[in-house]
Amino acid sequence: MAGHHGKFVWYELMTTDTQAAETFYKDVVGWDARDAGMPGVSYTLFTKGEQQVAGLMTMPQGALEMNVPPAWLGYIGVDDVDAAAEDVAAKGGKIHRAPDDIPGIGRFAIATDPHGAVFALFTGIGAPPPAVDPMAPGQIGWHELMSGDLDTAFPFYAGAFGWTKDQGMDMGEMGTYQIFAIDGAQAGGMMTKPKDIPSPYWLYYFSVPALDTAIERIKSGGGKIVLEPMEVPGGAWIVQALDPQGALFALVGQRG
């Protein structure tokens, strides 16, 4: 998957009730879903048109035993997973699952940054999928890190993946919201988490065509709004929510 080093290339929901989650996200985000057809593995693909957007799987038994809550995981593309894992560890991160193969798909590893935010490393087999507009309905429009400490978190990701600083927004007492770019294009933002948030995390924003309609579907589907609609620079609106199993996600789009 040449040319994708440092880019988010996949997203995956690990949850306690995959059937309920499939129904919820199909309704809220507008995805279709189908079985991945992987021998011996139950794995669902969320799709938009012909494009595969994200995956869905039951949480591993080990995670359940540790009371790890359902959550979305982002995969960052790298040229060489083994080398990238060594680099992440050398820069103060931690590898929680050593590099391993997904037959016929690629190679991956699970990691945390120096403050504990989880992400995955991935090298795929074959040609990468075509580029898409991140704000097109059903795509992932934004990547946001509530970091343990912005001043050290940003250099970690910049060093590991080549991300660069874009606009920095003064959020008053909350500090700076640092927008970052990947290959020159704005891809997300990060800031030091508020003290009342127990641990750092990545949050992914799914693009929808009509935010108010999606909010009503969140509520009717058993989800919960945790951040009411807020306008962001550029004229789009966002909302943050929990799905019925407790996984945090966000939506971005126009009102309506």
Structural notes for this entry:
With 256 residues, the chain is α+β, with helices and mostly antiparallel strands. The protein has one domain (1-204): Roll (2,3-Dihydroxybiphenyl 1,2-Dioxygenase, domain 1), CATH 3.10.180. The protein is 19% helix and 44% strand. It has helices at 18-29, 61-65, 81-90, 150-161, 211-220; strands at residues 8-15, 32-35, 44-48, 51-58, 71-77, 94-102, 106-112, 118-124, 140-147, 164-170, 176-182, 185-192, 201-208, 224-231, 237-242, 248-253. The strands form 2 sheets. The protein has an 8-stranded mixed β-sheet with strand order 2-3-4-1-5-8-7-6, covered by helices on one side. The chain has an 8-stranded mixed β-sheet with strand order 10-11-12-9-13-16-15-14. Helix 1 packs antiparallel against helix 5. It is globular and about 45 Å long. The protein starts with 7 loop residues before the first strand and ends with a strand. The model has no long low-confidence stretch (mean pLDDT 94).
What does this entry show, briefly?
Pfam families: Glyoxalase (PF00903). By secondary structure, this protein is an alpha+beta fold.
